[in-house]
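Quick review question:
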């Protein structure tokens, strides 16, 4: 029979090294490596004045953002609770609309957000309005709806962060869903107490240039000047109770981390807006939840350590990670353009106990 201690060597290596908490320097190094740069570019406001993020770049970023979110929420779809928050249109100007949601006591500290979904009711377009626009070509019967999180800075200025973007047909009506999980994450980390969640919704042409119609203006959502109660914007919050589903590996947010805390995953927010090197370079996101592994791990019996002395003490490390999509500005030939990049291993998904990189089987844990 094979000795039990030989099973240690059969476990796969974790994706990240032990102990280390992600720092701004490590993030910068990864970004420079991904872009094959030796140092962070210095971009001033003049470089950014006429910089616009094209629709295809936004779509690429949103696709990576949603794929990363699906990876992070995999396995958390079961036994979750659901809460619906009613919102309202605070202001509308041309094809841009501001939505507000009161979030007070909506997300208790003992609950983990799995997904947040914004639902807007697209009203049917009157036939007379369609007739006025004449026959719509295939490239002009759709509009792009973009959702951004709006934050108000301490100096009173605003900043928007791209959250979701999708195409809708002017001929359709009914509820449209947008994944706004990142917006609620931003709100949790950056907003002042009792500050509402603000979402900016804009409707634009799918294609720009000559020959395009104004059909995107036909896309209207209920409650934009209408009394339709059934169409009030809705925010769905899907959460997990950490007290019941602690197997997800997250630390108790209400308990301080001490020497006796077992290995767990703790929230850690990286604020990119506070990093000088990211100024005018990193366009999206303004920050992200990276998480970190904290706490201690049970150690193997001394007899086992004596038989296999190569293995060191067990440590709490990141055993599963996820990538971080970004939009950065690139300067080439005197022109500045936006580019999407994806940095691997930036978010901790799972923490485990390991000894020199080898995960310890559960049956060996005391």
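Suggested answer, residue by residue:
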């Amino acid at each position: 029979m094979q000795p039990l201690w030989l099973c240690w060597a059969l476990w796969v290596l974790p994706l990240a090294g032990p102990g280390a908490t992600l720092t701004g320097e490590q993030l910068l190094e990864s970004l420079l490596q991904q872009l094959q740069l030796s140092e962070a570019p210095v971009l001033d406001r003049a470089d950014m004045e006429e910089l616009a993020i094209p629709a295809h770049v936004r779509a690429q970023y949103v696709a990576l953002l949603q794929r990363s979110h699906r990876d992070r929420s995999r396995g958390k779809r079961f036994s979750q609770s659901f809460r619906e928050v009613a919102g309202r249109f605070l202001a509308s100007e041309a094809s841009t609309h501001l939505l507000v949601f009161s979030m007070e006591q909506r997300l208790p500290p003992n609950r983990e957000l799995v997904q947040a979904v914004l639902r807007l009711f697209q009203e049917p377009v009157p036939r007379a309005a369609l007739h006025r626009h004449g026959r719509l070509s295939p490239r002009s019967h759709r509009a792009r709806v973009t959702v951004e999180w709006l934050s108000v800075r301490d100096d009173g200025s605003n900043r928007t962060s791209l959250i979701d973007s999708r195409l809708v047909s002017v001929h359709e009506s009914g509820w449209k869903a947008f994944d706004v999980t990142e917006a609620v994450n931003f709100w949790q980390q950056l907003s002042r107490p009792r500050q509402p969640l603000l979402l900016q919704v804009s409707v634009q042409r799918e294609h720009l240039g000559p020959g395009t119609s104004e059909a995107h203006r036909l896309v209207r959502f209920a409650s934009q000047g209408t009394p339709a109660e059934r169409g009030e914007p809705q925010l769905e919050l899907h959460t997990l109770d950490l007290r019941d589903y602690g197997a997800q590996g997250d630390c108790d947010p209400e308990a301080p981390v001490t020497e006796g805390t077992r290995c767990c995953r703790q929230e850690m927010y990286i604020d990119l807006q506070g990093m000088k090197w990211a100024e005018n370079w990193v366009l999206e996101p303004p920050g992200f939840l990276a998480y970190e592994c904290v706490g201690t791990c049970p150690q193997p019996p001394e007899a086992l350590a004596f038989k296999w002395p190569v293995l060191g003490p067990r440590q709490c490390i990141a055993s599963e990670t996820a990538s971080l999509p970004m939009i950065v500005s690139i300067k080439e030939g005197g022109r500045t353009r936006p580019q999407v990049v994806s940095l691997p291993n930036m978010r901790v998904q799972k923490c485990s106990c390991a000894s020199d990189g080898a995960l310890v089987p559960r049956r060996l844990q005391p």
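Why it works: The radius of gyration is 24 Å. The domain at 24-68+243-356 is CATH 2.10.90.10 (Cystine Knot Cytokines, subunit B).
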